[in-house]
């Protein structure tokens, strides 16, 4: 499956506007058709995390749904040893999740076409990949490494969906311990902050913004709204209705206006219905 | 090809466009119609909130305007209704242009008629003077009559009936022209023995012979008035392009006053038995049987001019008279009551209004709206079968009395002369139907929650949709022997040999007696007036279409298998035995009584549904000599598609009940669990099977363990790769709410973990206490019980709230709605609530569940189940039961299903919300509020808007689907299906079966993925039962109630495959599949995705690049995608068939 050096020298890699190299890929050796991967070195102005070093990361587009991270790692090791593979639904900056969740508790990822970030051990891998011959497609499923799809895959997944209650309990317990610990730490921190606001030995109080204990329970939006509404209601209650003659006259005028409006609305509705021929009984 | 492409585009297009052509699989006429509607939709037909300028709104009102405003406000509960009626009247009234056409044609015909040549006098039976081109419109039985006849120009020609009165309405404009036969042709004795009717027929034939040669006349045909063969008429249409727009009906009448009215007393005889039978009898004139129908027939010919005078006098006093009659006619026509023999036609409608005016029940100043309302009110409250009414103010002494009329006729309404019963042909059943319709109309008229106008005047009520069960008598000739069996010779003579009309009242009363408490109402179709060309003989009586009868069932009593009669020793027992014949037997009951009884067969609900069929066929066979083969009973024909069960056929009621019972038991056991850290606050079902609406309810199965692999550590069964896909076991969702407590964490991830812990704990306890096999997952807990798998979700009521809360940068707690929270609320709050509400509805209406199942089966079969979800369609069906107007709640699944299709196809989704008033929680004010909110934000709301008491503004259930295009297609397919299905059901000559509406047209799709039936677990549920069956790992026998290995749950390769396809190619195509055993996945490309797009990193999935110069454009890589279909579905996909060359452009 790997391209031979001889061929490599003869034919040219294909590059399209935008700087992407085109890399054909097919499911197995019998496949009649190919998808194409679009690859390019990963280049962004502000990459914050260290997980995608700029010089060693290859950016791959249009990875077919049957390619798992392991398959991609396998395919690209021919260009140089691969350090990590990250598959995403959409291109974008990576965000590391704060805590490691068990696979069971993370939402299932979409099984569509993916975007990949492949980090090689050294930067030569990128060049090798970009130089890859256009006429020699990558092959996903080989005899050595068959990729399961269809019924086989679904049965496999069904089997894997089982989890021993004990194991599950363990995962839950460890997470909850962890969670409680973090909760405690948080409480500890808040307590410390609260303490800081108390008198120190010399009788000084450190004054910070806000009242005591504001950090513990932040203001909520809903509470704000409620107070505003209360004010409005109060204002309304104080108003007098139909007290002066002009007010009374106004109400009457409003009533007629209301009737007129309804009449007009109905007329318009009719016009609409008539235009749609909604009055023909048969 | 090109057309087809345009076609597919429309379905696929997700963004609303002004698409011009709609695809359809069913033929050209629809296309044309569709195109027209599309066109009109293109015009700016959007509702904009009215904006009146300030000066317009606040200008001082004139007195007139104020009056008008006040009137519309007070007189009608909505001024809209008044305007709607006015618009309707405009639609049915004749235009001036049409009137001119009619007048000129009438003039032409009058001129022609006056020039009829005279002919020599011959014997009546001598037809030699007629040319061969014209036949006599009369059944000459017996063939010999005395008398002389010759042709002569008519004595006078006048317009009569609705046209001169101004009550003529569209469509089918009929103008009546009375031609007076000159007195010298007739003889005062002609009333005897059909002599006059025969002369009348001869005269018409003579006129036809004269007219047929004229170029002004388009077609000449014979018909007969109200289906009465003694009153033939000549139908003329104008030549030229307006031929079909109106018909001129020529009647031949005797000169006014030619016969003495007292000769037609209902108790007098005018047909002699000796003449009719041809045998010598010893009867004198006094002892001859009376011939009331014959008498009223001839009398009817004598009076039309007098009636016209009378009606004109009345209508000239009341300005709204003609509008009132027009409305009443529309109302009658929508109920199929105005046409045919014994119907309540327009003439009777005018007479009824005159009666109400004369008796001061309505005043001359009332509007058309009030006239309609008062006449319906009168009809609903007055029984003309018992208390007849009369228009005669001071009848002369020879006129018969009301009681004499009642003894001769079933329905009595006397004309102004006092001699004629205008309802002579009407059966009591027809009048009861009229009464029933009127009272139903009155019920919903005032209901502000119903669109009164629409239900009252716009919705057609064909018998097949109105009645719960329908049956037809196919071979009408068999009624001849019924007449013999029922001993109806004198009645037959009275009806001049029309055995259908003779036997009908007797059959009706027989059925009424037999069905008794089981039905609300027995109706029958009114046989249409026959029409035949002047060159052919009059058709025989049996030539008319089959008689249809409709039953409106009482759901609770109709399914009873026992007919309990009087005690054996009571005098009524003999009567009971006489009625039921050999089926009646003595039975001893649990209360010790020994009574006569009839026991009908029926074990399951679907068999019991057909008890009325057994009664009908038995009674007709026993008393009327009509064999079972002549009765075509249309009660449960459609139910076949949801029928299961090998020994006892069942449509799922029994299975659903078992599931519900098992669930109730589980729920009790959950409540009883001890040792949980928090207590359970609620256990709710959230699955269609728990509200009786699952299309194929789960059945407990005994599994063949050798068919499966075993999971080593958990003993659960797993499917084997080499075997066919195992039987599909539906997990039945149950929501288990846990008590709120401070112990719950305030973090969504932590809550999820706690729930998982609960799943484990619940499972352990259930196994320990009740020995149920269980399998905990982070998301749910599966419990195997009684052969069912229940999927328990633990829920915490504050979780959606926690999901919505977040702390923003400033430390402020903000609440933002998000999809995750909505989905959670949907599954833990809304679905269980809907399930329990609909479960209640099933208790109220026993055929609710079956209707839902039929509806969903249809949606599935037509590949719509992904767009109209189970919950949506259940709600739609619920609306049919909760707001049935103008019908009554469906009493059989078939009627319900037909109305479901009608609702889908006729509801104006664009301009109206569908309000489903579950539990009757919404008031009129709520309706207005919903409507106003809907109008205000129509554009942003789902295309199909369904409001419920708990969801007035959002239409939760239809938010995701259907899209505009899909809804359009659903509407179209529904209306086609309805049309085809009703034809199938009502027409016995149809070749195809009713399943034809369940077979989707596949030619609109771009790609078909054919599946390997071996891997389709629900294959046996397919519309057309499969020819091959696969072993799916089940054994005969009943399932264990507890224990056993966990079966393979919720493993359906087809749905897994569909999910993967949609995830991978959802941007490029739509995928459709019948979830109930469909072996084809239909694919439609989205045209948007096939427009070459510039290369963008976010938009290259499954696309290939084409480089032209500096530009790189991408298009879908179709060949590779088609191969991906194969790869992703390896083992399941048999073949991928690309039907269009879509990608080539």
TrEMBL record, chain A:
Q: Which GO terms describe its cellular component?
A: CURI complex; UTP-C complex
* Entry's Gene Ontology BP terms: ribosomal small subunit assembly; rRNA processing
Q: Which residue ranges does the record assign to the RRM domain?
A: 56-145
Sorted keywords for this record are:
Coiled coil, RNA-binding
Q: Tell me, what is one Gene Ontology molecular-function annotation carried by this entry?
A: RNA binding
- CDD domains (alphabetical): RRM_Rrp7A, RRP7_Rrp7A
Region (Disordered) location? 180-234
Q: Where, if anywhere, are coiled coils annotated?
A: 249-276
Pfam families attached here? RRM_Rrp7 (PF17799), RRP7 (PF12923)
Bias kind Basic and acidic residues: ranges: 180-195, 218-231
Similarity comment text for this entry? Belongs to the RRP7 family.
> What is the name of this protein?
Ribosomal RNA-processing protein 7 homolog A
TrEMBL record, chain B:
Q: Which domain of life is it from?
A: Eukaryota
Gene3D superfamilies the record matches: 1.10.1410.10, 3.30.70.3030
**An annotated GO BP:** rRNA processing
Q: What are the Nrap protein domain coordinates in residue numbering?
A: 175-316, 320-459, 465-624, 639-843, 845-1000, 1002-1136
The organism's taxonomy opens as: Eukaryota, Metazoa, Chordata, Craniata, Vertebrata
Location(s), subcellular: Chromosome; Nucleus, Nucleolus
Region (Disordered) residue ranges read 1-44
Gene Ontology molecular function terms on file: RNA binding
Q: Which family does it belong to?
A: Belongs to the NRAP family.
List the GO terms this entry assigns under cellular component, sorted alphabetically. chromosome; CURI complex; small-subunit processome; UTP-C complex
**From which organism does this entry originate?**
Xyrichtys novacula
**Its biological purpose:** Part of the small subunit (SSU) processome, first precursor of the small eukaryotic ribosomal subunit. During the assembly of the SSU processome in the nucleolus, many ribosome biogenesis factors, an RNA chaperone and ribosomal proteins associate with the nascent pre-rRNA and work in concert to generate RNA folding, modifications, rearrangements and cleavage as well as targeted degradation of pre-ribosomal RNA by the RNA exosome.
Annotated InterPro entries: NOL6/Upt22 (IPR005554), Nrap_D1 (IPR035082), Nrap_D2 (IPR035367), Nrap_D3 (IPR035368), Nrap_D4 (IPR035369), Nrap_D5 (IPR035370), Nrap_D6 (IPR035371)
Q: What are the alphabetically sorted keywords of the record?
A: Chromosome, Nucleus, RNA-binding
Q: What is this protein called?
A: Nucleolar protein 6
């Amino acid at each position: 499956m790997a391209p031979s050096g001889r061929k490599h020298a003869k034919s040219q890699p294909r590059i399209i506007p935008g700087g992407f190299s085109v890399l054909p890929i097919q499911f197995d050796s019998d496949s009649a058709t190919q998808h194409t991967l679009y690859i390019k070195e990963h280049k962004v102005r502000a990459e914050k995390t260290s997980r995608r070093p700029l010089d060693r990361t290859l950016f791959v587009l249009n990875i077919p749904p049957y390619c798992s991270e392991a398959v991609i790692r396998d395919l690209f090791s021919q260009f140089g040893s691969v350090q990590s593979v990250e598959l995403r639904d959409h291109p974008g900056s990576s965000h590391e999740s704060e805590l490691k969740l068990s696979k069971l508790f993370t939402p299932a990822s979409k099984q569509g076409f993916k975007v990949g970030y492949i980090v090689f051990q050294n930067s030569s891998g990128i060049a090798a990949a970009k130089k890859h011959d256009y006429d020699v497609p990558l092959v996903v499923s080989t005899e050595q490494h068959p990729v399961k799809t269809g019924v086989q895959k679904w049965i496999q997944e069904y089997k894997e969906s089982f989890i021993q209650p004990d194991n599950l309990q363990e995962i839950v317990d460890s997470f909850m311990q962890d969670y409680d610990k973090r909760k405690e730490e948080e409480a500890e921190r808040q307590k410390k902050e609260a303490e800081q606001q108390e008198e120190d030995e010399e009788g000084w109080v450190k004054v910070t913004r806000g009242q005591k204990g504001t950090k513990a329970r932040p203001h909520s939006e809903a509470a704000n709204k409620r107070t505003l509404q209360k004010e409005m209601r109060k204002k309304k209650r104080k108003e007098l209705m139909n007290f002066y003659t002009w007010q009374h006259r106004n109400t009457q005028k409003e009533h007629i206006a209301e009737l007129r409006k309804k009449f007009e609305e109905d007329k318009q509705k009719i016009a609409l219905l008539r235009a749609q021929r909604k009055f023909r009984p048969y | 090809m090109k057309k087809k492409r345009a076609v597919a585009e429309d379905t696929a297009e997700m963004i609303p466009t002004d698409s011009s052509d709609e695809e359809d699989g069913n033929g050209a006429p629809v296309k044309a119609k569709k195109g027209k509607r599309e066109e009109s939709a293109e015009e700016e037909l959007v509702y904009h909130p009215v904006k009146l300028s300030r000066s317009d709104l606040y200008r001082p009102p004139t007195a007139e305007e104020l009056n008008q405003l006040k009137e519309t406000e007070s007189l009608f509960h909505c001024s809209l209704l008044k305007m709607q009626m006015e618009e309707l009247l405009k639609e049915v009234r004749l235009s001036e242009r049409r009137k001119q056409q009619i007048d000129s044609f009438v003039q032409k015909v009058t001129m022609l008629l006056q020039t009829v040549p005279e002919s020599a006098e011959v014997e009546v039976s001598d037809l030699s003077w007629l040319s061969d081109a014209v036949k006599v419109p009369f059944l000459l039985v017996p063939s010999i009559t005395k008398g002389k006849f010759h042709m002569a120009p008519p004595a006078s020609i006048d317009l009569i009936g609705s046209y001169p009165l101004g009550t003529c309405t569209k469509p089918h404009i009929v103008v009546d022209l009375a031609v007076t036969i000159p007195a010298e042709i007739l003889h005062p004795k002609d009333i005897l023995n059909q002599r006059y009717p025969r002369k009348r027929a001869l005269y018409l034939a003579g006129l036809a012979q004269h007219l047929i040669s004229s170029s002004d006349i388009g077609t000449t045909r014979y018909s007969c008035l109200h289906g009465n063969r003694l009153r033939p008429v000549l139908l003329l249409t104008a030549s030229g392009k307006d031929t079909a727009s109106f018909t001129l009906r020529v009647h031949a009448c005797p000169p006014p006053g030619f016969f003495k009215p007292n000769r037609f007393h209902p108790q007098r005889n005018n047909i002699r038995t000796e003449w009719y039978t041809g045998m010598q009898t010893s009867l004198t004139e006094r002892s001859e049987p009376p011939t009331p129908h014959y008498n009223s027939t001839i009398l009817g010919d004598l009076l039309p001019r007098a009636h016209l005078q009378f009606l004109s006098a009345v209508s000239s006093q009341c300005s709204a008279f003609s509008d009132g009659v027009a409305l009443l006619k529309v109302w009658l026509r929508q109920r199929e009551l105005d046409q045919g023999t014994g119907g309540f036609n327009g003439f009777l409608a005018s007479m009824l209004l005159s009666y109400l005016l004369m008796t001061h029940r309505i005043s001359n100043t009332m509007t058309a709206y009030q006239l309609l309302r008062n006449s319906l009110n009168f009809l609903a409250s007055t029984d003309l079968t018992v208390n007849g009414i009369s228009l005669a103010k001071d009848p002369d002494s020879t006129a018969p009395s009301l009681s004499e009329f009642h003894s001769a006729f079933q329905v009595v309404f006397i004309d102004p002369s006092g001699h004629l019963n205008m309802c002579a042909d009407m059966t009591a059943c027809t009048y009861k139907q009229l009464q029933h319709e009127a009272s139903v109309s009155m019920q919903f008229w005032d209901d502000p929650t119903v669109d009164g106008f629409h239900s009252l005047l716009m919705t057609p009520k064909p018998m097949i949709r109105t009645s719960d069960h329908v049956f037809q008598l196919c071979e009408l000739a068999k009624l001849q022997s019924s007449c013999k069996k029922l001993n109806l010779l004198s009645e037959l003579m009275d009806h001049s040999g029309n055995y259908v009309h003779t036997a009908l009242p007797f059959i009706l009363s027989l059925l009424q007696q037999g069905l008794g408490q089981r039905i609300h109402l027995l109706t029958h179709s009114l046989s249409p007036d026959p029409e035949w060309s002047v060159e052919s003989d009059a058709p025989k009586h049996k030539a008319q279409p089959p008689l249809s009868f409709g039953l409106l069932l009482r759901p609770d009593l109709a399914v009873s298998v026992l007919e309990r009669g009087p005690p054996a020793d009571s005098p009524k027992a003999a009567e009971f035995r006489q009625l039921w014949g050999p089926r009646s037997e003595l039975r001893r009951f649990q209360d010790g009584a020994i009574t006569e009884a009839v026991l009908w067969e029926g074990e399951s609900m679907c068999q019991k549904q057909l008890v009325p069929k057994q009664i009908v066929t038995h009674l007709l066979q026993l008393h009327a000599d009509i064999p079972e083969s002549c009765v075509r009973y249309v009660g449960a024909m459609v139910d076949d598609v949801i029928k299961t069960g090998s020994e006892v056929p069942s449509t799922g009621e029994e299975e659903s009940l078992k599931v519900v019972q098992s669930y109730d038991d589980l729920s009790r056991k959950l409540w009883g669990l001890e040792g949980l850290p928090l207590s359970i606050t609620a256990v709710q079902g959230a699955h269609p099977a728990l509200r009786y609406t699952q299309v194929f309810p789960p059945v407990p199965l005994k599994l063949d363990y050798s068919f499966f692999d075993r999971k080593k550590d958990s003993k659960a069964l797993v499917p084997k790769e080499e075997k066919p896909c195992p039987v599909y076991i539906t997990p039945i969702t149950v929501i288990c709410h846990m008590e709120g407590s401070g112990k719950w964490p305030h973090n969504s991830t932590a809550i999820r973990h706690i729930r998982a812990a609960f799943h484990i704990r619940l499972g352990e306890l259930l196994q320990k206490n009740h020995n149920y096999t269980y399998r905990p997952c982070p998301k749910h807990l599966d419990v195997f019980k009684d052969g069912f798998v229940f999927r328990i979700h633990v829920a915490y009521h504050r979780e959606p709230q926690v999901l919505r809360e977040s702390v923003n940068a400033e430390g402020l707690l903000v609440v933002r709605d998000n999809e995750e929270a909505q989905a959670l609320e949907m599954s833990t709050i809304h679905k269980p609530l809907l399930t329990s509400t609909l479960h209640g509805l099933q208790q109220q209406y026993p055929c609710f569940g079956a209707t839902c199942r039929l509806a969903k089966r249809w949606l599935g079969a037509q590949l719509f189940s992904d767009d109209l979800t189970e919950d949506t369609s259940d709600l739609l069906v619920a609306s049919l039961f909760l707001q049935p107007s103008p019908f009554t709640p469906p009493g059989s699944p078939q009627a319900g299903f037909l109305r479901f299709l009608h609702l889908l196809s006729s509801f104006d989704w664009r301009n109206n919300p569908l309000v489903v008033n579950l539990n009757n929680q919404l008031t009129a004010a709520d309706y207005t509020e919903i409507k106003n909110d809907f109008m205000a934000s129509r554009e942003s709301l789902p295309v199909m808007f369904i409001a419920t008491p708990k969801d007035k503004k959002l239409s939760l259930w239809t938010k995701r689907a259907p899209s505009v295009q899909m809804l359009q297609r659903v509407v179209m397919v529904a209306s086609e299906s309805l049309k085809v299905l009703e034809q199938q059901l009502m027409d016995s000559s149809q070749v195809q079966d009713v399943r034809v509406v369940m077979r989707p047209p596949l030619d609109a799709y771009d790609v078909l993925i054919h599946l390997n039936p071996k891997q389709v677990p629900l294959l046996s549920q397919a519309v057309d039962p499969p020819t091959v069956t696969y072993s799916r790992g089940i054994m005969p026998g009943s399932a264990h109630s507890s224990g056993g290995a966990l079966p393979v749950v919720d493993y359906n390769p087809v749905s897994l495959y569909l999910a993967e396809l949609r995830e991978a190619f959802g941007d490029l195509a739509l995928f459709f599949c019948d979830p109930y055993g469909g072996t084809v996945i239909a694919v439609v490309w989205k045209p948007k995705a096939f427009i070459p797009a510039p290369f963008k990193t976010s938009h290259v999935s499954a696309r290939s690049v084409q480089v032209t110069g500096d530009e790189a454009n991408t298009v879908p890589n179709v060949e590779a995608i088609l191969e991906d279909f194969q790869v992703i579905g390896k083992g399941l996909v048999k073949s991928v068939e690309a039907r269009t060359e879509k990608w080539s452009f």
